[in-house]
Design brief:
Layout (H helix, E strand, L loop, with lengths): L8 H12 L4 H15 L4 E7 L5 E7 L10 E2 L4 H9 L3 E3 L21 E9 L2 E10 L7 H19 L20 E4 L1 E4 L2 E8 L14 H23 L10 H11 L2 H12 L4 H17 L4 H21 L14 E5 L4 H5 L6 E6 L7 H8 L4 E3 L13 E5 L4 E4 L3 H24 L13 E6 L6 H6 L4 E5 L1 H5 L7 H15 L4 E4 L27 H6 L1 H15 L4 E5 L5 H20 L8 E7 L8 H4 L5 E4 L1 H8 L18 H17 L3 E3 L7 H9 L4 E4 L1 H12 L3 H9 L10 H10 L5
Parallel strand pairs: 9-10, 10-11, 11-12, 15-16, 15-22, 16-17, 17-18, 18-19, 19-20, 20-21
Antiparallel strand pairs: 1-2, 1-6, 2-3, 4-5, 5-6, 7-14, 8-12, 9-13, 13-14
Amino acid sequence: MIKGVRGPRSLLRQIREAMASGGPAQTRLDMTVSIIARSMVAEVCSIYLRRASGELELFATEGLNPEAVHATRLNPGEGLVGEVARSAAPLNLSDAPTHPNFSYRPETGEDPFHAFLGVPLLRGGRTIGVLVVQNRAARVYDEDEVEDLQIVAMVLSEMVAGGELVDLAELKGVEIAPHRPERMKGMRFADGLAMGRAVFHEAPVAPERLLSDDPSAEDIRLKAAIEALRAQIDEMLDGQHGLVGTPFEVLETYRMFAHDRGWNRSLEDAVRSGLTAEAAVERVRNEHRARFAQARDPYIRERLHDLEDLANRLLRILAGEKPGARRDLPDDMILVARNLGPADLLEYPREKLKGLLLEEGSAANHAAIVARALQIPCVGRLAGVRDRLSEGDAIIVDGETAEAFLRPRADVIEAFKTRFSVRVQRRAEFAKLKDEPAVTADGRRITLLMNAGLAVDLDNIEDTGAEGIGLFRTEFQFMVSEDLPRLDRQTELYAKVLDAAGDRPVTFRTLDLGGDKVLPYLETDREENPALGWRAVRMGLDRPALLRLQLRALLAAAHGRELRVMFPLIATVDEFRAARDMVDVECEWALRRGRRLPSTLRVGAMVEAPSLLWHLDALLPLTDFISVGTNDLFQYMFAADRTNPRVSDRYDPLSPPALRALSRIQEASVESGTPVSLCGELAGRPLEAFVLIALGFQRLSMPPAGIGPVKRMILSCDREAARRGVSNLLTSSNGSVRNEIESLARKLNVAL
């Protein structure tokens, strides 16, 4: 930069004036590189833009052979320009031809130039081009010059993307934003098909102005916004803002970054250079995105997500948005997020939300459970999906094959429409079966119940033909609330559930909090291993006021009707005795006050701790019923955290150890005459349900979407033949017997 004229503000204004002069796009580009070269006292200035093929094309130059413009194209990663694009970082060399990546292109005439400075044109964290200056003399450009050229590159990238620098029609084939069709493979969290437009959970706010007229005023705006951001995060950490389910560690990381001197200094330097506060945030965010995206270390990439969220929050504060402010949403929205809590998902209008894509999570994630309850197709474990999308992009969510199609081709859309039509027909077939009893081909009656946890689930009782609610997750009301639900609110919800069920049974599971279900308003200690820590019935017994309040609400809601209460994660017989005693205490409390008790009160236990497998003879006589929670039972059996994507798929529930455990529970229940049901997620999958029926289970509770397919399977199944076939597999030495079970089902002509 010319000495005495510090900062790129004068240069940027000259570029703006050149853009406003009109004329052909190439003329404006040529003027731009000429202005930059003159201001930087450089003998060469060139702009390369990235084609959809990945090639970098020379679009304009001052100092190189003009005939090379649009003729010189570098392959991805080729040459020094390709290295800048690959690394998304500046490259500053005193003697470019000696660099191992130097690529000689005789048509450019760059032989005499030694000093080289290249910076990436970044857009949305992606490199869309490269800006280069060169000089004959061997020299290293100083830090101020590198900084200035980066700021110019940031503004140029926005101008290119906005069509200010080059007419967008002339940029056909230039990859400004992701536009090619892509297919990504993930993990199925919720079945179904959906097509719509991308909506980011944390919508990025694009800066409207890039250049400031008053850097001092922008500096004040920036510092005020950072203070507001810190206050917002402090409020969240104090548990007063209601960020339901957000882990304390994530908010601590936010606070650490919000106070990070390096991050703050980068923002302040960008503002002093002449950018608006918004443009400064965007520029620093793009640099971090590009740099961290190269990292292989998952911890470092995780920090990128934290910085992304932080930048988005800061941009919304600068834009004057209030926390939780609503925005316009398309009627066919596909929500794209890093991860979600159940409360986050429920904030979106159900009629507009067609599908969900998550970068992280697991099938046991509570957002995934809610998605299944709402019958919203969901695919998770799509690493980097947000960086491959722009808001408004067309997406197909394939919950059957666990795939996402970004900007799908016409033939893919046609295939989707055909499959969607078939699904509609299948749903119509299932609807015809809803009033038909679930009876096997050899006359065994199976009771099909549904899992629920939200008021919105209640409509599914009639729609699916479920014979009741086998598992009502009462903690969901706590997880979507900003404060602890009081007695009247709990009573109102439980009464509403019983009213909707009518004469059909409802089994209420008491609070299953702790572990991966964190409430911001409920103070708990951080644990090394929360899945094995203070959770579920343990929390209720240690905090009797919390559990007794819920039991009081349940008794009041029943008001003369049958009430079924089930305690989760019972690990010892003594725990069940203590929990049942608490029910008796609440019944006595109600009687003393003349309250009406349930007509029938049944108290049960969830079998999901392996310890009970060897103490069923002591437990079952104390219970009115039991229910098997396979999600937790199997994670404890196989020592694999079901919420940890790295290990959650290390075992198959259709394996001999798992099937033997289920068989043991079923046999013990028959011997003691104790009713047993199974309410894990696998009950809603036809193949797994086929095995459960073969093992003798006659009561299955599942997500609403599973009832139709499972009922169709039952009607085609000969239970006795299935029992004989499956019993032979229990002693197998294989880690999984899924293939054998699939073969058996085909042999028996079971409709899967």
